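lol forgot to send this yesterday, sorry. struct tokens for the thing we talked abt
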């Protein structure tokens, strides 16, 4: 089961991340400063959407093989991840924390577990380290749900409880002597440790569980548009007015520790259950393709920026504004090509090789 209208949201989130990293000094970045500043929170959106998508994909499957699940996840993220990693390794090995130990951690997707290596080499790759932990635990969570060991209501309650516990813990650490600012090991543990973000994944699974089991679907054009608009406004207002929460709790909060996942899961769920001309438009092949290419956009943004800045921008001799947009458009085009030429074929090849190896073992 897929909800195609959600796929394009990944593209928008990835573009916001790229804008945050490299487009802050553009006129558009300055004019939409409050929107561009949401870039770091988009990673939380990815985590929440990941749980939702996996839940709706596997909850209705009567059976699946554990080995096949893990191979499918590795085949989905590893090829482009490794390509980007080794490009950055070639260009920055030996600088700062980019040593051999960091490389081994990145290859094994363990960099976020070992401060201060979370942002080593290809820094956006830290979120893939977190995702890999999510993938590792997902079958166990799925087993508990499918075997009716836990009810829908209990799982949702448990997810919200973990969310609250996580936010209280992280914010308490942030406001204690433990936190030494950035950069520090304490900063890495609060903002990059997979356990700090597990609540967003669980909330995403909860949203997917309610979507599948409740079978709520709304076909009212303007009512669903109004509902999406309202939830989108609340989400955006909350994201851009963090001071409200600081005033309520009278202390800084760990907003980068999946704080906004509770808002994202509601937004994702509302869009998923709605059928209107906007969701149908977002389900068109061109928007789905951009959404599929969003992973390459996200993971290639840093190595391509390095390549673009070193080899292309000087020869093009563009003003800073136009230079960024040229980089952005080139990144999107490259990512679409990469998705078609590398991601999809390599995924099929890995799955085919895995199936062949398993058949050989069974034949013996």
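and heres what i got for the seq, position by position
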């Amino acid at each position: 089961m897929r909800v195609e209208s959600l796929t394009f949201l990944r593209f928008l989130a990835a573009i916001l991340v790229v804008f945050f990293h490299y487009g802050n000094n553009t006129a558009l970045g300055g004019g939409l400063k409050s929107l561009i500043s949401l870039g770091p929170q988009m990673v939380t959106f990815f985590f929440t959407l990941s749980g939702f998508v996996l839940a709706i994909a596997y909850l209705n499957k009567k059976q699946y093989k554990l080995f096949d699940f893990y191979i499918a996840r590795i085949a989905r993220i590893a090829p482009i991840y490794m390509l980007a990693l080794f490009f950055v390794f070639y260009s920055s090995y030996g600088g700062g924390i980019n040593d051999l130990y960091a490389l081994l951690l990145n290859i094994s997707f363990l960099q976020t577990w070992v401060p201060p290596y979370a942002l080593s080499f290809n820094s956006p790759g830290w979120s893939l380290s977190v995702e890999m932990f999510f993938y590792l635990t997902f079958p166990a969570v799925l087993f508990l749900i499918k075997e009716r060991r836990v009810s829908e209501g209990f799982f949702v309650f448990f997810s919200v409880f973990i969310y609250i516990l996580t936010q209280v813990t992280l914010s308490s650490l942030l406001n204690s002597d433990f936190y030494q600012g950035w950069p520090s090991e304490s900063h890495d543990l609060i903002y990059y440790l997979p356990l700090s973000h597990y609540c967003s994944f669980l909330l995403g699974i909860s949203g997917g569980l309610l979507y599948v089991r409740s079978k709520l679907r709304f076909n009212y054009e303007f009512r669903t548009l109004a509902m999406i608009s309202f939830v989108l406004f609340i989400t955006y207002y909350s994201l851009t007015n963090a001071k409200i929460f600081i005033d309520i709790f009278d202390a800084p909060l760990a907003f980068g520790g999946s704080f906004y996942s509770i808002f994202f899961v509601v937004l994702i769920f509302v869009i998923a259950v709605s059928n209107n001309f906007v969701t149908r438009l977002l389900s068109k092949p061109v928007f789905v393709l951009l959404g599929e290419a969003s992973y390459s956009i996200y993971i290639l943004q840093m190595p391509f920026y390095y390549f673009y800045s070193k080899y292309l921008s000087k020869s093009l001799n563009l003003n800073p504004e136009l230079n960024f947009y040229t980089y952005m458009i080139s990144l999107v085009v490259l990512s679409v090509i990469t998705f078609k030429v590398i991601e999809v074929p390599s995924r099929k090849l890995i799955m085919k090789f895995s199936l062949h190896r398993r058949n050989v073992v069974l034949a013996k």
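The two ends are 35 Å apart (CA to CA). anyway ping me if u want another try
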